Amino acid sequence: STEWVSEEELRCMRAVGYISGSRPVVITADLSVNTLTQAFTSDLILLVNISQSNAPTVGSLNVSLYADTFGIAGSLAARVGLSSTLLTNWVSTTALKVKVSAGVVSNLGIAVTSEKLVSTSALTFTYDVLKLLSLQAGGTDSALWAQELDSARLYTGGNDLTIVGTGFGTADLTPSVQVGNRTCLDVQWIADTSLVCKTAAASWSTQPCADGSCVSNQAVTVELLQQVSNEPCVEDLGWKDRINNSCSDYTVNAKAMSNKYDCGWNRTITASTGIVTDGDGNYSNNIVCQWYIFPSEAISLMGIVFDEFATEATYDRVRIYSCQDSSCSSNNLEGELFGTWSNKSFSCTSCVGLHVIFETDFSIVSSGFSARFYTSNSPSWAVDLPYSFWQVWCGTNYANQYPSTDGRTAREMCCSCRGENYVYECPSGYQQVGYYQDAPDSVCEDINNCGIDHNCSLYQYYDIVSEQYTSLGGECVNTDGGFTCVCTGSTCDSVAVKPSQTLDQALLDSVQSNAKIQLLRGNYSSPCNLTLSKSLTLAGASDGSTYIECSSATVFIRVTSSTLIIKDVSIMGSSDTVGCVNQQDSSAVYTPEGSTNILLCNSSLVSM
């Protein structure tokens, strides 16, 4: 409305309208019009509040802004820092709703613009600080190392370290990464949740890793536009999830789940709760893996559960012994497993530990096993609950499934769950244990190389008669950080053959002179009519249960200028014309031993 006050004064109440810059004032009296240019200017928008002052770096969050007035719906635009919001919607004269775009960094100014006028405000907006959630290091045992001539060891560097987390930005903003006090040689931005860095060189002492002198437990930090990850972790000691687990319970779980010992473990296990496994993927041939599990605390019960088990039937076996003394010289065989099993358990109440042995022969592998062990000192979930509860509670599935009543999760509240953001660098020939954040017992241990994979040409076979494993190819011997193959005479040239394989000319041609071909218990098929011009021994099972069946009525083998010894092997239907040994010349020698029934062609059985 307009009110006349005097000859020199009018009073006007301005209607609600756009927030804009200077405007002319126009007065009309009857047919007369008068104008005063740039006489009126709207006050600047004063922002007074914001519904949420932080967001993930990926943005796309709806936020409400409040001011003294935004005027009526008009040409309004908002920005956070220097980035325009994805969407700006006028709600009322005092409220706007905006969609925040992706960004990084904290304490960014918020501004709303109407035409040429920019709001004034002390309000700021912050994108979530960087968080590291997990690490995956490339190379053997998380890093590749080299032995230098001066006996000092140098980490060669250049391995890929994948860092998973949040807040790395939705574009490459050139983050930097440090492992300990060493900056990565190169950092590749993958996504807001992933970076890959090439690790730099690091040195470590020549003293044994068990002394704690190896480079280990190195904190990984990421810096992005002056924001640094790995702020000191302070957890809410009073927090509990919906099923009453506290942060200390999550820490106990993290520690127990990090106690995972594969075939390479070469020392006594002192933990009361953990997992033993042959390793990832299929196991190898010719291995001997042993776990001595002797908890450091006194126990009244100890058990082990094989949740997954798949080995070659008969020939690849796991034996479980309960130990009555610390050397396990006094022990009881609790069980022996081979083939396929699930949820198979063993326990003892008067033992001080367990000795688990896994041995495989020379051929055919499978997925192996995973077994969890526990004691009377283990947390209740480790003893009483099924395998499904043996999981990493800090994982997103479990931690998000049981938040506290106010919606806070363990990954937000508990230090053990806020990021397994530590990398453990072990030299080649060593492995690590204790992967959870701040693990005090994360150490590098010498690997049982002979229990993993090696290039010794071994032929370890399981003798059903003696119930023992025997190696025809010498022996693999562990050394500090490595292994060596020990052979005597021609033993490394010997081979073993299973009944599923064919005894043919290709097999005879593949072995070296003076070698032994060990045949296991069972029936072997052979085309027969074979020729031999090198000396060798053909040996069967000691109980005489090894048989060869010729596929046609013919001579078994023709020997020329060499010596053939056959021990404890029989040919079905053998005679002096079929399934017999033919000495081709005067220098050919055939010697049957043990229960062998194979005749010389056109001759009677040769006596021993």
TrEMBL record:
<dbReference type="InterPro" id="IPR000859">
    <property type="entry name" value="CUB_dom"/>
</dbReference>
<dbReference type="InterPro" id="IPR013783">
    <property type="entry name" value="Ig-like_fold"/>
</dbReference>
<keyword id="KW-1015">Disulfide bond</keyword>
<protein>
    <recommendedName>
        <fullName>CUB domain-containing protein</fullName>
    </recommendedName>
</protein>
<dbReference type="InterPro" id="IPR014756">
    <property type="entry name" value="Ig_E-set"/>
</dbReference>
<dbReference type="InterPro" id="IPR002909">
    <property type="entry name" value="IPT_dom"/>
</dbReference>
<dbReference type="InterPro" id="IPR035914">
    <property type="entry name" value="Sperma_CUB_dom_sf"/>
</dbReference>
<feature type="domain" description="CUB">
    <location>
        <begin position="263"/>
        <end position="376"/>
    </location>
</feature>
<dbReference type="Pfam" id="PF01833">
    <property type="entry name" value="TIG"/>
</dbReference>
<dbReference type="InterPro" id="IPR011050">
    <property type="entry name" value="Pectin_lyase_fold/virulence"/>
</dbReference>
<dbReference type="Pfam" id="PF00431">
    <property type="entry name" value="CUB"/>
</dbReference>
